[in-house]
Amino acid sequence: MADFYNVKVDVTYTVIYVWWPPLNRTNASPTGKYLVMRYNPVKHSKYDGSDIVMHEIVHTISAKQSLKQKQILTKEFLNKCNINGKIKRLRILEEPLAVVFGQMLFIKQFIPNKFRFDSNWYSKPWVRMFAKLSMPIVEETFKAGKSITDKLIPRLSKICAEAVRVSTQLAK
Q1: Which residues fall within 8 angstroms of residue 90, CB to CB, at 6 or more apart?
Q2: pLDDT tens track of the chain, all 172 residues?
């Protein structure tokens, strides 16, 4: 994963499970060397949360990209699909990629009997939809041993632009 993002980092977390009864879903927050996993042990008794841990590891690795790389990739993406200001910045591309790697591809690889492409992968509609649209291209890029800087972003920005065009046309 670090190679995909062109960073050198070793990410290790101690996961601390915290009972959080009002949640209907799990979530986690990295805090130093710990990852606080909020979940309801009654509602989520059969859920191990490993995909959420991986999701947060992807965020940690992504955050270690050089500022220059982040700026180039952001400019490249927004050049073809300028949705800046319509969606929170981290949800435009970083969050969908964390869903693709941390949840979708992780589950597909390590818990294949639980993988369902049509699952509700994220609570926010843009992230959920863009992750599903991005997954095949991200998976292909990753399996080929390429990185995020190997023409992935222009391909994803074209998909983004198409999604925006379609949603605008549907709204008419």
Answers
A1: none
A2: 999 999 999 899 999 988 887 777 788 889 889 999 988 888 877 778 899 999 999 999 999 999 999 999 999 999 999 887 788 878 889 999 999 999 999 999 999 999 999 999 998 999 999 999 999 999 999 999 999 999 999 999 999 999 988 988 887 7
- Using DSSP's 3-state secondary structure scheme, residue 151 falls into coil
Q: What SS3 state is found at 26? A: coil
**pTM of the shown model:** 0.89
Question: How many angstroms separate the CA atoms of 26 and 116, rounded?
Answer: 18
Question: Residue 132, Cα to own-chain centre: how many angstroms?
Answer: 10
Q: The tokens of 144 are what?
A: 């080929």
